[in-house]
Please model this.
Amino acid sequence: MIVKNLVNVQDSLIENVSLIAVSKTKPASDIQTLYDAGQRAFGENKVQELVEKYEVLPKDIEWHLIGHLQSNKVKYIAPFVHLIHGVDSFKLLKEINKEGVKCNRIIPCLLQFHIAQEETKFGFSFEEAQEMLESNEFVELQHVAIHGVMGMASFTEDENQIHEEFQTLHNYFQLIKSHFFKFNSDFKEISMGMSGDYKIAMEEGSTMVRVGSSIFGSR
Ligand SMILES: *Cc1c(COP(=O)(O)O)cnc(C)c1O
Model:
């Protein structure tokens, strides 16, 4: 069943959009099933759960940390994480850099922006990100690589609002690209879209969708 769901989601993706299968709360055996069907990118939002699954599953899985990350937990994932989607503060980015130094990696990160109307969703405002990117302290971080942006739309039935929020994120991506990463080909990802809104996100330029329940079933 979950393989069929995976294939359905894959078939609905437009060209050059990559799929992160969000496996949070689901057993490692489900991940193995999708791995056997060819899926390699999986997303988790809790560090401990991600590490436990990393330890028992094939080593060529690309692990994406998609949720809020606490600074004191970076060290557990720094040696192997493929992409950290939820970088929402300068403090966190500095901590990731520090752990990158320790394990001699350049850790790929996305800057999370607050685009939803809900108060609870984490993320930079555009001004905060701009201030960070302009600082000398940022330029000195040699063990993180900013690969793009991430955001979550409001949980709403109002599709126009969802369109607008994703447009906002795409706009931030383009502004930041042109101001800070013009000649950096690594800065290319817009991680937006979940089960309920990834089709809208793709229409608004998403390059990476994070889909959980449409593949694994409800949590
Ligand atoms: C859980 C989660 C998803 C996937 O949500 P679904 O609605 O199950 O597809 C995507 N992104 C983040 C940040 C999440 O926490």
Remarks:
- The chain has one domain: 2-216.
- Residues 2-216 form a domain with the TIM Barrel fold (CATH 3.20.20.10).
- The CA atoms of residues 154 and 161 lie 8 Å apart.
- Residues 22, 24, 45, 66-67, 152, 194-196, 210-214 surround pyridoxal-5'-phosphate (CB under 6 Å).
